[in-house]
Amino acid sequence: MAEENSIEKRLKIAIVITAIFMLLEVFGGYISGSLALLSDAGHMFRDAFALFISLFAINISKRLPTKTKTFGFHRVEIFAALINGLLLIGISIWIFHEGYMRLMGQRQVLGKEMFVVALIGLIVNIYVATKLRGHGHDLNVKSAYIHVLGDTFSSLGVVIGAIWIYFTEQYFIDPILSFMIGGIIVFTSVDLIKDALRILLEFTPKGINIDDVIFEMKLVDWVKDVHSIHLWSVCSNVNVLDAHVYVDEELVINTECIIKELNDRLEKFNIKHTTFQIECQECEDACRFKDVCH
Q1: According to DSSP H, which parts of 135-270 are helical?
Q2: Would you call 247 exposed, middle or buried from its count of C-beta atoms within 10 A (0-12, 13-18, 19+)?
Q3: 57, 180, 230, 288: most buried, per Cβ within 10 A?
């Protein structure tokens, strides 16, 4: 519990700092005329949202399910992620359009102001990444940490670009940097949208091979076969499985022990909710599903 509270506190601090600096980058980009800074602000927005999702997932996991909401509010995380991904695609389109217009007619950029704001951004990203490092066992926090780490390199690129502009007055560097940052945002946003749709459409969870799950289940003593298996995710860190498990008739009495060992083996796949139908003969569905599941 103390460790969980520590993670929540770190996330809250990271969200506040990231959000404040995002606004500072918007202001700095407007004052200096740097599109790269405005693009990086979009990147920071994505990071702030990733941190918020991590905090939300931790808090929502504490809420007990109800009779009308048997899985709680876990799916809210996925809907929010989908909306965020679509919003970021829109931001990227604006960045590309604005970058193209600036390449056609170069606009002066104040290199010194751009450098100061970008340097603060780099320091902020390093600080936030340091705060989150060491909590890789939590998938949501690990994801947020990777986002922030990626933005650190983006901020470093803006710092280098600001120095280049200050000494050379080659202002075309600014829209080129914005194209690069916009490309990163698009790449990560498309990935975010795909992951959200994968969960909403109840596909097999990303990174899990259903054949590996079946193989692991068959390692349990007395389990002769597994079929009619369904595996999906409720949210990014809650996987659900139901399956028919075939055992010898005389061993049906050991159902409780079989289910316990099955659940123990499935923990490695982050499967937190299971429903097993123990059978002493293969049901009619077995033949129909065997080609799909084996």
Answers
A1: 139-168, 173-200, 210-218, 255-266
A2: buried
A3: 57
